Amino acid sequence: MGKTVYSRNPTTAKGTIWNNPVARASAKDIRVHYKNTYETAKAIRGLSIANAKKYLNDVLAQRRCVAYTKYYGGIGRTGQASQFGKTAGRWPEKSVKVVLGLVQNLEANANAKNLKNLTIEHVQTNRAAKGRRRTYRAHGRIGPYLSSQCHVEMWATEKQQDVRKEGKNTRQVAKGKVPVGEKW
Questions:
Q1: What is the DSSP letter of 176?
Q2: Using the 8-state DSSP alphabet, how is residue 63 labeled?
Q3: CA-to-CA distance for 87 and 170, rounded, in angstroms?
Q4: pLDDT digits 0-9 by tens, 32-50
Q5: What SS3 state is found at 27?
Q6: What is the C-alpha separation between 134 and 63, in angstroms, rounded?
Q7: pLDDT exceeding 90 applies to what percent of the chain?
């Protein structure tokens, strides 16, 4: 296998390349359904690694669901999806196990680089080449029997510490309004 190429590099809000260390993980040609894995991976974006692992383990135990936002045709409704402001949700066990394995790999890569307090910044799921098998039909015909595989990549960066802006002791007032307790 050659070097893994990611779709993009981490950047700051101003568009410059991120100089801080990044922990990455990816998997290619995974034999899990693309649509389920897309929704599962999307659900953990923005979470810390510890919260992502806790969430995925809760989905495996069916205490929480994966809310379906894009590929929700024919998906049943569940009350657990109301936590995300949705109605459609499922518990895609195989996809959750694969994404959980990637998160654990991401954590191991971060530990090797001595990174702490990581947040999953980027998760991307792409369709892979379909796995081809065949099924035998009536009258001697043969039909395709394809599987929808996928690629998944993710990275996590250290969460920046919030810095309070040093400012003057002035109150912000809406334009044209008189501040309370003052006369003009």
A1: T
A2: S
A3: 46
A4: 999 999 999 999 999 999 9
A5: strand
A6: 38
A7: 70
CATH number for the domain formed by residue range(s) 22-158:
3.90.470.10
Find the distance separating the first CA and the last CA of the chain, reported in whole Å: 74
Closest listed residue to residue 135, CA positions, set 143, 126, 127, 147 = 143
Residue 80's DSSP bridge partners are none
Residue 26's SS3 state is strand
For residues 150 and 29, give the distance between their C-alpha atoms in angstroms, rounded to a whole number. 5
For the stretch 78-120, pLDDT in tens is: 999 999 999 999 999 999 999 999 999 999 999 999 988 899 9
Residue 168 has pLDDT above 80, yes or no: no
Domain boundaries defined on the chain: 22-158
SS3 category, 144? strand
Burial 97-110 (b: 16+ CB within 10 A, else e): ebbbebbebbbebb
